[in-house]
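Our working data are protein records whose layout never changes between entries. Instead of coordinates, the fold is spelled out as a row of discrete tokens. Here is such a record, shown just as it appears in the course material:
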Amino acid sequence: MSNHTTTVSNTLIKYVGDLIALDKHILDAIEGQLNSRKINEFPTAHRTLAQASGVLRSGIVTLEQHLSSIGSDPGTPVKKVVSAIAGAAASVIDRVRPSDEVSKMLRDTYTALSLDAISSTMLHTTALAMDEDRTAQLALAHLKNITPLIMEISQVMPEVVEQELVRDNSDVKNTNIAKKSLVETHKAWTR
């Protein structure tokens, strides 16, 4: 193998390993949320988190298979990356845990999945730059599986917030605002 090929391979192995580690960390956190009894009070939120869990689980399998095909043992870079995750990224992911409020669970999952999406974009771009089409297509497919989850959470959030406010806050004066919030939020994203 030439030095250039080794560099490309090592770079892709590292980046694919990074994404696997990130996905595993997010998956663990989401599964913790799904085990919270609070989430069962919100069937739509529960369904969204269960869907995210399934997408991540499937994505991890696919990424690990790809990692093996480009010349690495899936456990090796993942172990190094998991132990090396630090700073802002780790603090974002570590906050994705069961909370007393389902809206906060969804917020934290939204944030973690956004990090996953931008990480997939980075892997896609890197693979394109290195003429590694298989990795680029895999990263793009992963991104296409993550982005609908982020959109789903943004659509579920107003309903969950409204229900929590009505249930927990006697100062709420205006109920039935979830639909209005959803429409106005959608406008903000599509202007």
